[in-house]
Write a structure and sequence with these properties.
The chain is α/β, with parallel strands linked by helices. The chain has 2 helices and 8 strands, in the order βαββββαβββ.
Length: 120
């Protein structure tokens, strides 16, 4: 079975602030593409673009939109980076009450998007 997520986009209002925010949290460098009035910073995994931080005039962040959960190696470190980079924690690190599952947390980025973190 293919991954259920083909591609995702996180809308932002301050492109470079958001790129710096996500680079700091996940410790990755983004492939940045700029077009006439649109900008994208791409998440690349195993050589494939799987998603992007996107700026376009009519593509706006929402705290009630789709909730994406990212895997992370060290959720406590990621939470500290969220706070350090100007985000806020909506749901603190929480144990998932299902056998064999790990922890999750939800944060809000500086643009107002809700994003989840997950670790085994």
């Amino acid at each position: 079975m293919k991954n259920l997520i083909a591609f995702f986009e996180i809308p932002v209002t301050d492109f470079y602030q958001s790129v710096n925010f996500y680079q700091a949290i996940f410790g990755v460098e983004f492939m940045v593409a700029e077009y006439s009035n649109e900008k994208m910073a791409c998440f690349v995994q195993d050589g494939q673009t799987v998603g992007a931080i996107s700026y376009a005039p009519d593509f706006k962040p929402s705290e009630h939109g789709v909730l994406i959960h990212f895997n992370c190696e060290d959720i406590d470190w990621a939470i500290q980076q969220v706070l350090k980079q100007g985000g806020s924690i909506v749901i603190p690190k929480t144990k998932i009450q299902a056998e064999g599952k790990g922890y999750f947390a939800v944060f809000t980025d500086p643009a107002g998007n809700r994003i989840g973190l997950y670790t085994d």
